[in-house]
Amino acid sequence: MLPYLLLIPLAPLLGFVLVGVLGASGLLTDRWVHRIAVAASLAALVFSCAAVWEFSSGLDHLVPLAEEDPGRFLVQPDEGDSPARFSVTYAPWIPLGDTLLRGWSSTGERTASLTVGWTLSFDALTAIMLLVVAGVGTLIHVYSIGYMAGDPGYSRFFAYMNLFMAMMLTLVLGGNILVMFIGWEGVGLCSFLLISYYYDQVFDRESGLTCADAGRKAFITNRIGDMAFVLGGLLLLITFGTFDFYAISDAIDGSSEFWYASLLLTGVGLLLFIGATGKSAQIPLYVWLPDAMAGPTPVSALIHAATMVTAGVYMLARMSSLFWHAPGAMLVVAVVGCLTAVFAATMGMAQYDIKKALAYSTVSQLGYMFLGAGVGAFVAAIFHLVTHAFFKACLFLGSGSVILRAGHSNDMRLYGGLKKWMPVTYATFLISTLAIAGFPLMSGFMSKDEILARSLFSTRGHTLLWLFGTFGAVMTSFYMFRAVYMTFHGENRSPEWVRHQLKESPRVMTGVLAVLAAGALFVGFLGVPEGVSKLVGLGNVNWFEHQLHPVVAARGVVAAASHGEHGGQAGVDTHEDPAADSAYASALTADEATGHGEPQALEIDVIREGLVAHPTLGQEWALFGVGLGVFLAGLGLASWAYGNNMRRAAAMAGSLGFVRRLLHRKWFVDELYDKLVIGPFKALCRGADAIDRTVVDGAVNLAGILTEISGQVIKLFQTGVVRHYAVWLLAGTVLVLWIVMG
Amino acid sequence: MSEATTFCLIVSAVLFGIGTLGVLPRRSAITILMSIEIMLNAGNLALIAVSRVLPGQGGLGLVDGHVFVLFVLAIAAAEAAVGLAIVLALYRLKRSTDIEVLRLLRW
Question: What is the three-state SS of A715-739?
C-alpha cells in the first residue's frame, strides 16, 4: 500500500508534465492530450481505490517500505478510542533536529523536534476525500473532452487540470501542515490559472473586468486567508513543536485539561478559520468565488464547487481535536457559516447568470458545511461536502451543457423551454436540483437536514442557528427551482440563430451527467442520519458516520476549575448529559465571579455522545416535516413566480425593484470593499509611490547631481596648456614640502 | 655638514630655480626642454653633494647617490631624444613649437 500512496498525487503530476511539455511544443494531437490527461486522473482514482481497499481490510498486513527500516511508518492499530490511521515519511524535508523552545504561553521550556518530512497520512477522512476528489475529478476530465473540444488552449487546459488534481490530492494526503500547505497553495495557483484561462476576454460587461482580473481577484483574496493559515500553523509549531497533524491532535487530546478553551487554541482556531474563509469563500472573503465563474465551466464544477473550495471544511475536520477544545472558535465558525449560508442564498435568488446563481449556491452550501463543523457535526459537514460534490458538480456540468448549446451565453433570460431539446441535461439537472433543495431521502436531504438537526440539538448549537439555516434552505429550494424554470421551462427566449442549432450535448458529456445524477440520488444512503432511520424503525445504519466518527470525535477529558459549591458535580457521570457544556460554563462563570478559592477538578466528558441530545421520535417527525415544508415552500414560491413563463416574476420586478436591484448587485458588498479596503489600500500605495519618487529617488538623483557639479568645476583646471599643469605641479610640490618640513 | 657641501647645495638650488623660471613663463617647447635639463642636473648636483657626506664603506661615502645620478643621466638622454622627436613631430603638424597653440588635451 505504501508505495502507491505516493503514486496517487504523482500520477496526475506526471500527466501535467507530459501534457504540458509535449502539448505546448505541439507534439500531441488533441486526442492524445485528453487520453493522457484522463489516464493520469484515472490512475490516481485507481490507486486511491486500491489504498482505500487495503486500508479498510485492516492495517495488520501493511508491508514496511524497506525491511531494514521499519521505523519509516507509524501504524496505530484500531484499539478502543483511537481511529485507524497511519502516516509514511518518504523523505526528510527540513532536518532541523531538536530545538529548544522557551517562554511561550505556560508551556515553559522544552525541546521540540523541528524535523519536517515529506509525510503522507491516511485515515478514514483521507479515504473519503481521496475518493471524492479523484472520482469527481476523473468524471469532469471526461466531460471536458466534450466541452473543450476544438478550443485553441486544449493542452493548456488539461495540463492545468492535471496539476490541480495533483495538488488537491497532496492537500488531502498531506500528513503535516507544510505538505498540506503545498497542496493548499498549489490548488490556489491552479484556480488562478484556470479562472484566467480566457485571459483576454471580458467576462463582466457591467464592470468591464477581464477573466485575468477575475483570476487575480481570486488569487489575492486567497492570499489574505493564506496569511492567517500560515500564522496559525506557525503558532501550532511553536506551541506543540511539530507540524504533524496526528502529533498535534494527540498532544491536544492528551492534555486537554490544560488546553481547554485556552486563548492560544482559540486564537489558532480563528486563524485557521480565516484561512478557511479564503479558500472556501466564506464571509468576509467570499467575494472572489462568483467572479471565479469566468473560468471554463468544468473548472467551476471541479475547483469552485466540488473540491478546492471544500478544502477549508476538510482542514477544519482535520483539526477537529483543536476545535473541540476551542469552543469560542467553534462558535465563530458556526455563526459565520450560518450567516454565509443565508447571505449568499439571498444573492443567489437575484442572479440572471446561471453560473453566478450556482456560485452563490456553492457559497451558501459551504456555509452549511461550516455551520455543521461549528456545532461539532464534523461528520455531517464532511458528508454534506461529499453529497454537494456530486449534485453541485452535476448542476455546474448541466449548466455547461446548456451554455455550450445556447450560443455560449450564461444569461438565463435567454434560455427557456430547453427541456424539449436537451432531455438528458434536463433530467440530470432536475435530479440534482431536487437533491440540493432537500427532496426527502435524496442526498441533500440526508446531509443538509442532518446539519440543521445537529445545529438545533447539539449543545454547541443554538435555536437561532437552526432558524437562520432553515430560512436559508427555503431560499436554496427557491433559487434552484427558479433556475430550473428559467432554463428548461416556458417558452424559448433565445435569439433565432441559437434556436436553430439547439440540440443535446455529445454523449461524453451526458454520460458524465448521468453518473453524477445517479450519485446525487444514491450517495445519500451512505449516511442516512440516525433520526431518519429511526423514523422507519431501523437502528443506526449510518455507515458514513461509523467510518468517520473516530477520526473527528472529541477525545480527552476536560477538567475545569471549580469551587467547593460546584464540587458536587465532580465525579457525576456526565456521559450523555446534554447539559455538560453548560454546567462547565456556569462553573467557569462562578469561578470568575468569586475569583478566589482552591480550584477543584470538574471532569466533563467533552463529547462522546454527550454533546448531542437525542431528540425524541416526535421531534424527528417534526424535523422531517419542516424539511419537507422547506422544500415545498421553495418549490411553490418558484413555480408561483416563474412557473407561468415568468410572467409574475416580470410583473413583480417592478414592485420589488429596489430589493431586486440590491440582491442583484450583491448587497453592494463589492462596492463597499472598494470603498473600505481597496480604496484606502490604493491611497496607501499612491502615498508610498510618491515617497519613493521624491525621497528615495531624490537622494539618488542628488548624489548624481553633486558629482556632476563637482566635475564641472574641476574640469576648469584641465586647460590643455602644459605650463598650467607645471604650475600646479610646482604648487603641489611646495605645499607638500611645506607640510613635511614645516 | 661641511661648507663645501652647503655651497654645492646652494648652487644646486640656484640652478633649479633658473630651470623653473625657464619652464614656467616660456612658450617655446625647445626652451622648456632645455630648462628641464638644467633642473635635472641641479638635482644631480644635490645628490652627489649629499652622498659625499653620508657615511658609507671605504671612505667614499654612500655610493647610492652616484648610482642615482648615472640613472638620471641615462634617462635624461632618452628623454631628450624622445622629447625632441615629439617637438619635431608637433612642428610638422602645427608649423609652430609654441605650447600655447598646442591645446589638444583640453576638455
Answer: HHHCCCCHHHHHHHHHHHHHHHHHH
